[in-house]
């Protein structure tokens, strides 16, 4: 922040320096100052896309999702192919409870988040909540290849396979999860329940 403040003293009308200062303020958690700077920039240059993007982020961090969404949509009109802007629009929609619109955007950005396990799990969870189990399953599978030592994607796969009526595949996912966490009681209970439902009482007893 100090470096940008020094630069701004030398060039007080330099919009790039102002935007960089605002971005630095955001990183340091000084959102209110960032908003003030960016509003001033946008009065002079209403189509400054970096200013719009950072203002949207500042409003998002303040949990003012409606205002953030409006700003990000303006930025998207200027840079329609910018995936970071699209991702933030999706985040605003999700925070506003508009999950269907949010997931449709994120499915279009699936390659962008291909190595981001938390983003993949969030998307898959939203799809599962919307009962779009086939799509959720595919995203959980992507997550499982990235986080092969985590049970979370496998639990999602198990749940989707069960909802899709694929009991054997559900059991396979469950067993893989148990290999990672062999003492996880919930996983063991789920496996025992599957064995009981199939009439395999001894296998259920052995699991517990």
Q: Helical segment tally? A: 13
Q: In what range is the share of β-strand residues?
A: under 5%
Radius of gyration in whole Å, from Cα? 23 Å
As a percent range, the share of helical residues equals over 70%
What sort of overall outline do the alpha carbons produce when their principal axes are compared? elongated
**Count of DSSP E strands?**
0
Q: How are helices and strands ordered from N to C?
A: HHHHHHHHHHHHH
Stretches where pLDDT is under 50 for at least 5 consecutive residues are: none
Average pLDDT, to the nearest integer? Answer: 94
User: What oligomeric state do the depicted chains represent?
Assistant: single chain
Largest sheet: none
User: By helix and strand content, what is the structural category?
Assistant: mainly alpha
For the termini, the CA-CA separation is 58 Å
List keywords for this structure.
208 residues, mainly alpha, elongated
Tell me about this structure.
Helix 4 (49-61) packs antiparallel against helix 5 (65-78), helix 5 (65-78) packs antiparallel against helix 6 and helix 12 packs antiparallel against helix 13. Helix content is 76%, strand content 0%. By secondary structure, it is mainly α. The longest helix is centred in the N-terminal third of the chain and has 14 residues, at 31-44.
Topology, please?
Layout: H1 2-10, H2 15-27, H3 31-44, H4 49-61, H5 65-78, H6 83-95, H7 99-108, H8 117-129, H9 133-146, H10 152-163, H11 167-180, H12 185-197, H13 201-207
Helix pairs in contact: 1-2, 2-3, 2-4, 3-4, 4-5, 5-6, 6-7, 8-9, 8-10, 9-10, 10-11, 11-12, 12-13
């Amino acid at each position: 922040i100090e470096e940008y403040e020094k630069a701004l003293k030398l060039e007080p009308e330099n919009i790039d320096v102002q935007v960089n200062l605002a971005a630095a303020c955001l990183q340091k958690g000084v959102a209110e100052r960032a908003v003030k700077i960016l509003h001033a920039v946008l009065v002079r240059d209403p189509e400054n896309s970096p200013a719009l993007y950072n203002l949207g982020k500042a409003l998002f961090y303040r949990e003012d999702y409606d205002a953030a969404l409006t700003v990000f949509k303006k930025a998207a009109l200027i840079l329609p192919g910018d995936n970071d802007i699209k991702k933030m629009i999706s985040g605003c929609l999700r925070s506003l409870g508009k999950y269907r619109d949010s997931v449709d955007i994120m499915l279009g950005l699936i390659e962008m988040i291909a190595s981001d396990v938390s983003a993949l799990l969030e998307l898959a969870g939203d799809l599962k909540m919307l009962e779009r189990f086939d799509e959720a399953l595919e995203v959980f599978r992507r997550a499982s290849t990235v986080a092969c030592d985590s049970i979370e994607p496998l639990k999602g796969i198990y749940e989707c396979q069960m909802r899709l009526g694929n009991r054997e595949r559900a059991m396979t996912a469950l067993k893989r999860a148990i290999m990672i966490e062999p003492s996880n009681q919930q996983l063991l209970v789920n496996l025992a329940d599957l064995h009981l439902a199939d009439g395999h009482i001894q296998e259920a007893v052995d699991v517990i």
